[in-house]
Each structure stands twice: as C-alpha cells, then as structure tokens.
C-alpha cells in the first residue's frame, strides 16, 4: 500500500491528467451524440488520446525503472524517451488527424445542430477539470524550473512526463475554447459548417503541439548532455584537486531523467604512480557522487593534455 501511495505522489501530474481526461472524454462523446456537434466529437477523441498518452507514459516510467543487465549495462531509463516520442506521434496521427478529418466531413455534409445547452454544460465542466489538471502540471513543473524561463526549462528538461502533460493540458484548454466558439457561432449564424471549421482549428492546435513534443522527445531519445551547471561542477571539482594539472574535457549524457553518465579526460601530475592514480580516481568518483547523486556512472581517463587535443580537437571545454 505504501508503494502505491508513493507511486501516486511521484506521478501526481500523470494520474491527475488521466482521471480528468477519462471523465471528460465520456461527457464529450455523450454531448456530441446528443447535439451532433463535430467539435465536441473531436474534443472527445482528443480526451481519449490524452488518456492513452498518460497510460503510455506511466508504462514507460515503469519499464524505465528496470535495473541494468548484461544487454543494457546502463539500465533502461531512456525507454521513457521512446514512449514520449510515441505519445507525440499519437497526438499528431490520431488527435490531429481525426480532428481535421471530422471537420472536413462536417463541412462537406453539415448536420443541423441541436440544443447547444448540453455542449456548454459539458464544456464548462471540462474546463474546470482540465484547469485543475493544468494547475497541478504547472505547479509541479514550476518546482523544477528554478529561475529559468518556462520555454528554456522545457527545452532543458530531461523528464518528458512533466512537460508533455503541461503541453497536453494547455492544448486541451485551447481546444475547449475553440469548441465553445464554434458551437456558439454555428447557432448564432445558423451555419453548422462553422462547427466543422472549429474542429479543423482544434486539429491544427494538436498538430502544432505534437511537432513541439516530437522535437523535444527526439533530442532526449538521441541523447542530451547534462545541465551545464552540473558539467561545470564536475570540471571545477576535478580541476581543484592538487594532483590534477588540467581537465581536458567533460562529456555527459542522460541515461534516464535522473541518471547521468560522465566521461572525463584529465591530465594528472607526472610524478603520480599507477597505484596513486587509481586511488585518486576512486577518491574523485566518490566525492562527485556524494555531491551529485544523479551521476550514476563516472569514467575518468588519465590523458596528457596535448594528446587529448590531438585526438579530439572538437571537444568543448564544458
């Protein structure tokens, strides 16, 4: 029971979004069936896609926690990035695709809209639920962004679950606003085709969000370096050791949102013996892991500065 509670707390953003989207999706489909609104049907599909996305991210997080083995010595942490990319594809292919298709179909064969009251009630309830989920996502993501701007924090984030839900909920609120305008305009101007145009507009919003998410997920999947501050801390701590004459390069890659592999090339004093060098490396690794627990693997290679420059002239200082 304690493990379940801990899991819910750690994934409060995903569980909150999942609960909201499941309830909203059912309500939207009922409203679409009663009123014949294309934008409401589109919003129902949108909520179902979002629900499936949250389930995939939860599944990805579970798979990513598997321990390292012979086939994957650095663990399975990056599997979460794969599922994040799948989520982006689903938003584009299913969410945006169905929205545009339904919108075009409704424009070509418009159906007379029935009472808009049901739509307005469902849209209002949906806005409250989506707003609650969005507030949770903003609050949780805000805890990790520090003093950085929102877009910079999203671009640098290595945990896709947080910013994906943030994007999804933002798109959902925008979709609700578009759907409300579409329903109102269709009745006000007595033209059901407007509801179809609203559905296409919702699809365009989803497509834009999917492209942004795919771009961020692709970077994580290929492999991104650690935060520059972490890299600089590693460099400073090693360079400060009296037995180190120079730090040639510090290269990092995230193997999971909270796990970093570090490869360091450093020039040690020539007077050091083999045994002293081994002890020094062990000492440095121990102190770095104590200060930066996210460093899951540290590889320090003794290398003359001039040799490191010849082998890897492209290596940046950080």
From TrEMBL:
InterPro entries in alphabetical order: Cation_efflux, Cation_efflux_CTD, Cation_efflux_CTD_sf, Cation_efflux_TM, Cation_efflux_TMD_sf, SLC30A9
Key word Transport present: yes
Positions of transmembrane segments: 12-34, 80-101, 121-142, 163-185, 197-215
Membrane topology: Multi-pass membrane protein
SUPFAM superfamilies membership: Cation efflux protein cytoplasmic domain-like (SSF160240), Cation efflux protein transmembrane domain-like (SSF161111)
Any Gene Ontology biological process: zinc ion transport
Occurrences of domain Cation efflux protein cytoplasmic (ranges): 227-303
Subcellular location: Membrane
Cation efflux protein transmembrane domain location: 17-221
Entry superkingdom: Bacteria
MF terms in GO: monoatomic cation transmembrane transporter activity
Keywords from the named record: Membrane, Transmembrane, Transmembrane helix, Transport
GO cellular component: membrane
Cross-referenced Pfam families: Cation_efflux (PF01545), ZT_dimer (PF16916)
Family, per entry: Belongs to the cation diffusion facilitator (CDF) transporter (TC 2.A.4) family.
NCBIfam families, sorted: CDF (TIGR01297)
Protein name in UniProt: Cation diffusion facilitator family transporter
Organism: Sphingomonas aerophila
